């Protein structure tokens, strides 16, 4: 998925634009086995927006989560710090990252990183990321 560049001080209008685009990405998800589509957008510290979808595999559950795909797109584009993660599910439920994705996000999350649920093309529930992964093992533990 391609990156969009928004202002480095991410505005309410920028957020609304990302939230409005995210549901369209659900159609690109490959959820053949679970039928649970997920789309994600990661916003880096430069205002870059990187989209991803879940991609399942016949050797279920060795697929790729939407957040993981979006993080990979961010890294490929040169980003290294996550400010926000937007998540939309085909069920339109409020969903949070799975445990593995929490660890993946934690590798790059800023101190103020937020997880933002998207429902009906609008940002709804906000969760401070570090409340989802307290006392995490991360890069600092290896220094």
TrEMBL record:
Keywords: Hydrolase, Metal-binding, Zinc. Belongs to the cytidine and deoxycytidylate deaminase family. Zn(2+) binds at residues 65, 98, 101. Its EC number is 3.5.4.5. It comes from Caulobacter endophyticus. The active site is at residue 67. The gene is cdd. This enzyme scavenges exogenous and endogenous cytidine and 2'-deoxycytidine for UMP synthesis. Its cofactor is Zn(2+). One of its GO terms (biological process) is pyrimidine-containing compound metabolic process. Residues 13-140 form the CMP/dCMP-type deaminase domain. One of its GO terms (molecular function) is cytidine deaminase activity. This is Cytidine deaminase. Substrate binds at residues 54-60. InterPro entries: APOBEC/CMP_deaminase_Zn-bd, CMP_dCMP_dom, Cyt/Deoxycyt_deaminase, Cyt_deam_tetra, Cytidine_deaminase-like. It catalyses: 2'-deoxycytidine + H2O + H(+) = 2'-deoxyuridine + NH4(+); cytidine + H2O + H(+) = uridine + NH4(+). Signal peptide: none annotated. CDD domains: cytidine_deaminase (cd01283). One of its GO terms (cellular component) is cytosol. SUPFAM superfamilies: Cytidine deaminase-like (SSF53927).
